[in-house]
Fold this protein.
Amino acid sequence: MRMGNARTKKTAVWLALLVLIAATALAGCGANSGDAGDGGTGSASQPAPSSGTGAAPASSGERVKVKLQLKWVPQAQFAGYYVAKEKGYYEEEGLEVEILPGGPDIVPEQQVASGVAQIGVDWVASLLAHQEQGLPLVEIAQIFQNSGLVLVSKKESGIVTGADLKSKRVGNWMGGNEFEILALFDKYGLDPNRDLQFIKQGFTMDQFLSGELDAASAMTYNEYLVVLDAGVPAEDLSVIDMNVEGVAMLEDNLFANRDWLAENKETAARFVRASIKGWKDAIADPEAAVDVVMAAVEAGSTTRDHQLNMMKEVAKLVAPEGFDTAKIGDIDEAMFKQTADIALQFGVISQPADLQQAFTKEIFEMATK
């Protein structure tokens, strides 16, 4: 009788072990199937949400791939993203980020809408125009808080304020870059077709330096520096600042494909969080940031000195004087509305922008919680 009980107990133990082994095998198959089917975009393959700077994933195989499409070629204008990548901030957030250079033939909105990239960088006016065309795009963070556009003139021209532009030769690159200047003309009651000569400006400052233009459009972080590098002292120049004039439009922002974002909010928040860290570092140490940028630029296309000066000016746009750096990336709703209003006034968009659809603050709030 005791031997029969022993055999019964032994059989029960073996059955229990077989059940346990089978259950373990099934669980393993289920996990592998979920990872493969998710394709790196669903929650199954993403690292657990983080409330801080982000915990590193268990292995590099778990990193989610994200492509960032820049507005222009590599330069200090985009330093924060290069620094974030170089310092491993994206990896810490479980991301594998590829930064795609822009150029004259690349439209970031089209790249993101088509899925070539998941996140893009461009000016808000351009984003608004593409949204109106029906592309499923939404802004998720505002990197430049101020406009970098100014009109620069030589003091000998007598131009001090917008009113002084009457009867002058004023340049702009056109092609979507002219709307702040048109808003400035409107502020002072100037008709660009009757009261002055509004001239298409090349992408160099040669027309200004040669005297063909009385006032030229310039970005504080690029063309204005070119004028200084050409030997014109700052004290010999007058500058009309679009921010001071109240006609500024928001520029570099981060936007995403709305359809992609619906399934990848945590990924977007991780990207924004890491990018903000990169921008903070770039602002705090411009020299180191430029070293990173110079490794990405095309050889011979620029100089380190130019990029360093650019970095210092870009820093003023990302975090203007008195700005709380904890709000880098935040979207100023009043400035966004001003940008949209100017865009509507001058035909960038034909209908008032739906601000609730044009941008979302949810991703920034997730990134900074």
